[in-house]
Amino acid sequence: HLGPQRVDRSVDSVCPFCGVGCLVTYHVRDEKIVSVEGRAGPANAGRLCVKGRFGFDYVHHPERLTQPLVRRAGVPKDPALLGTPRDWREVFEPVGWDEALERATAPLRALRAQHGPAALAGFGSAKGSNEEAYLFQKLVRTVFGSNNVDHCTRLCHASSVAALLEGVGSGAVSNPVADVAEAELILVIGSNPTANHPVAATWMKNAARRGARIVLADPRVTDLARHAWRVLPFKADSDVALLNALLHTIVEEGLVNEAFVRERAANVEALRAHVRDFSPEAMAPVCGIAAETLREVARAYATARSAIILWGMGVSQHVHGTDNVRCLIALATLTGQIGRPGTGLHPLRGQNNVQGASDAGLIPMMFPNYQRVDRPEAHAWFEAFWGAQLDDKPGATVVEILNRALAPTEDPQKVRGMYIMGENPAMSDPDLHHARAALAALDHLVVQDIFLTETAWLADVVLPASAWPEKTGTVSNTDRMVQMGRRALNPPGDARPDLWIVQQMGQRLGLYAPKPGAATGATGWEYPGPESGVAAVFDEMRTAMQAAIGGITWERLGAASTVTYPCLTPEDPGQPVVFTERFPTPSGRVQLVPAGLVPAAERPDAEYPLVLITGRQLEHWHTGSMTRRSQVLDALEPEATASVHGDDLAAWGLAPGDWAELRSRRGSVRVRLRRDDGTPRGSVFLPFAYAEAAANLLTHAALDPFGKIPEFKYCAVALRPAPA
Ligand code: SF4
């Protein structure tokens, strides 16, 4: 991999892209990363995908932010200009850190003083470290004074977490991906793992090669289908119909693991009664899968020695996302396919640290380690621990916060000021015209990032931050593995580590003096030690999250690189498989919740006859701010394409490579067409990484009522040819 190149140093870290959490080594020469090598981590065993191996040069991109910026007086925040090339000097002027921090914080202090805590909100990031997420949510809670803090988990697996917390008492996975090696049947639903979790997909393919049966259930027939025993290309939006038909078969054909449900489940009879109406024969026309296939899959899943379910955002990003996951929990529970190696429930987490950021409390309804903010004991504990007065009501979520930014001026809940660290809602939120108007309407917006993202273009103050290889910290992958990344480079120019910036913001915003005797050693927002006090922050976090990571010390992580939680004592090796004896619910049992059919918020009609499905590609990561600035990745996928079935292309008289305009009730984009016969007829698949053809200009902002996740996987669009 290195050829004849000279290397000055090699530094061990973690891949910054997806939740698989592959361990890497950065090879550095002349203060530049020259190559990345996979390490023998438990999640990757030396393997890397194209993003992990080649997507590193964004770090050295000339567009990196290297100095703090403030908006020039009188330059309007114009969302209409986003996605078009502009010279940043026309909009911003560089300033020193002192001035930038003062201009970042003074208006936030004033807004809070004038309008109260509800006027402020913060978005943290699933791309930062656990320590950054922890400190950011602590800043919002203790200094802004509300729970208006969230991050992109709201856009990916919030509904999964809502259902899992309700059903099994824990929002994380029950078994690691690697457990597919022990599974006889692997149900992959609403997921395209070869594109989105590529190294995890290799374990699935290996399992198929040694005889495991993969069932791939997804409206799009994707690459993993080549390795599948059965492929179920069900109609988009009919997940509950399909899953209830499987549950019906299991109940009707006597395949319930009665001993397991007697001991370990609650509300079983209500579920049995509910699924009686969902026979495969009745559901086949609804979901588009033959009744006999549904029965065959249900039997195979129920009777397998061990069967595991892995799912992605095809399940979660619906107005019925929580219901979809309730059905998956019921499947695993009725059949006893949980609590053992090779079984269980695995929501494939998207970003490298979306698991850890949620664990650290970067969500509006929970303190760290999922302690509800409205539970008096938890509230009192954190007030004492942080030495601050805390709000005891859940805050607003991502989409709700931006809705509140557009509330009438007399609304006491109106959000007027925001601090956004490492997120790009001007690309990632649904219905972007609305979301961008909301960001532009804020009285004051502070954005901390490594590039002038679409969100940063709308900011009043931009704080230049550090890329992942430029800092030391921990991240938690989809398998609940806490892993350490180490600094391989210094940030460029005047850019600073995020942890340093958050502490500076906290110090200047210090509206609450810590109470005397507070348990934390971090009073005054100064964490001592090297690397911006990261070890001290981790130590405080460990105290706040004893029941999950109490046994993981900074030193232990430094030596081991990876420790799986729950890990309660220094001797505890960590628990990759959980729920072996009881579930962490109040009763110790799974709480089963029946789910009915809830249609998508916006279905196709004569004017908008097609279904839009948004998602990711192998080469590009989320809003594209990193991967589109990586030479190899950008060369592989340089422009936005919309994938449609070949028969649809022929019917419309179009060919691959032709230009088309896609329109929804909310916006339009111009893209090239790509033939993909895995895309169901009557549908269009559009990746959301391209600012010049932002898929979320089209999407619908309807929310799942429990997880508050938008319905990114379904809305109505029209397509017409466009000039080249
Ligand atoms: Fe990185 Fe995910 Fe690829 Fe691994 S599978 S190299 S973590 S993007």
UniProtKB/TrEMBL annotation:
UniProt keyword Iron-sulfur, yes or no: yes
Entry keyword Phosphoprotein: no
Entry keyword set: 4Fe-4S, Iron, Iron-sulfur, Metal-binding, Oxidoreductase, Repeat
Every 4Fe-4S Mo/W bis-MGD-type domain range: 8-63
Coiled-coil intervals, chain numbering: none
Family (UniProt): In the C-terminal section; belongs to the prokaryotic molybdopterin-containing oxidoreductase family.
The protein, known as: Formate dehydrogenase subunit alpha
Organism: Acidovorax lacteus
Taxonomic lineage: Bacteria, Pseudomonadati, Pseudomonadota, Betaproteobacteria, Burkholderiales
